[in-house]
Design a protein that fits this description.
Layout lengths: L1 H7 L2 H8 L6 H26 L15 H21 L1 H4 L3 H25 L6 H25 L8
Helix pairs in contact: 2-4, 3-4, 3-7, 6-7
Length: 158
């Protein structure tokens, strides 16, 4: 716990929590929201297309969205890491935070698998593609829900 307190009381932690700058907490939350919107949103669009939504749209050009997804994911990693430093004693002791992080990791892995298996092996059975496309949807939903639950730790404790 001493380490978490020192992390939170570091210059970065104090800046995140206490600075009136729009680049501190407010800006980081905004970046985190935009990163989430792009990473989860574009991933969801690809998954839904694989699942048969908007069949008139060709799937192959959607592969160009993956660099945007990974850039947005990187923005979320940086902004989330800074927000975590600002609330280390709250987040690191909250079991829901670890559930959220598990969903984030599984979401990233499943997005990578969609790209590798669907876009690199287009002749694979469509049913396998559909099963694979459901994983990012479930993971991003789980991460978002757990993330919102982390904001209300007094209501969601194990």
């Amino acid at each position: 716990m001493e380490f978490l307190i020192s992390l939170e009381e570091s210059g970065v932690g104090m800046w995140v929590r206490e600075s009136p700058s729009l680049f501190a907490f407010t800006g980081l939350i905004a970046l985190h929201a935009f990163g989430l919107a792009f990473a989860a949103g574009m991933s969801t669009a690809i998954s839904l297309r694989i699942l048969g939504v908007a069949p008139q749209l060709p799937l192959a050009p959607m592969e160009k969205l993956f660099p945007i997804i990974w850039t947005a994911f990187s923005v979320n990693a940086v902004s989330g890491g800074l927000l975590l430093i600002g609330n280390a004693t709250g987040d690191f002791v909250n079991p829901i935070f670890y559930i959220k992080m598990a969903f984030v990791v599984l979401g990233a892995v499943s997005v990578a698998q969609v790209r590798r298996r669907v876009f690199r092996n287009p002749n694979q059975a469509t049913e396998q593609h559909r099963m694979l496309a459901m994983a990012p949807l479930a993971c991003w939903a789980g991460a978002i829900i757990a993330g919102k639950m982390c904001e209300y730790p007094t209501y969601f404790r194990f």
